[in-house]
């Protein structure tokens, strides 16, 4: 889970020996690294264990496009002023592209588009999910949301702690007023380089990746990270969703791209071996599915909260508890959809009770 990151002192190669890392990362201080002609890599700081986000600048003949924004803090605004004045060769900013709605990727989109008087580019699903999240802040903790956590067996104190942590989050309120829509298969021609829009699902509803096949470059956002797995979350808006199903399908789609491309992720180092990394993530979720299925067969019944405690057996902050529950439910829903689990609602408590289905054998789950 992306939210579960802790400080890791190992080298990139020690963290994932199957990948290659051809470039040294820039510091999160306004420095840049040229990835290819007209493609700059920079980092902005994040005030959390995952302490940076990778952002990219794409040079056109008459300006630059920003890909993802960082958080709306004074420090990040100052760094963007420095970057645009120092590294853009006197050319203006032409547009802002957000791969998805999560606030480390979109939180400064309004300020950047207003500061440089340029359009915002996002997919429909990401723009409107961002709007829904920001507008729903005033109604946080409503009866529908409360019922979602109660059905999962979450104790009332934990529910209240989750709601309070969300209310204190200073970055949820942001929502840009308008956008230019990106669709799957769209081509963005930037300085004769053609970037095809590839859509991923699971981590967010309509995540946009930018793929230049000719130059073997993929700006992957959170769809493919070298060292951690992005959070696959079920929440109250789509409690029966199949986010894991679509996440796994998106990883399979990335394995259809050419094998020798350079992956430009949102966190961690730039890397190669895209097919191997996608397979690692598929295997990670298969391991979790098998762990959860084994847990189900070892007991008469369980709740989603109990399963979360089994999969994430450690102390969690309220926000990480929320994300861990969402990830557990994503795996439960996948197992339900495949017939490995059945569910009933307790008539007294209203809690969803899950049981192993005898209709499936106990062989390891495979795709």
TrEMBL record:
InterPro entries: B_lactamase-like_C, Metallo-B-lactamas, RibonucZ/Hydroxyglut_hydro, Sec-metab_biosynth-thioest, WH-like_DNA-bd_sf. Residues 52-267 form the Metallo-beta-lactamase domain. SMART domains: Lactamase_B. It holds the Pfam family B_lactamase-like_C. It comes from the Bacteria. This is Beta-lactamase-like protein.
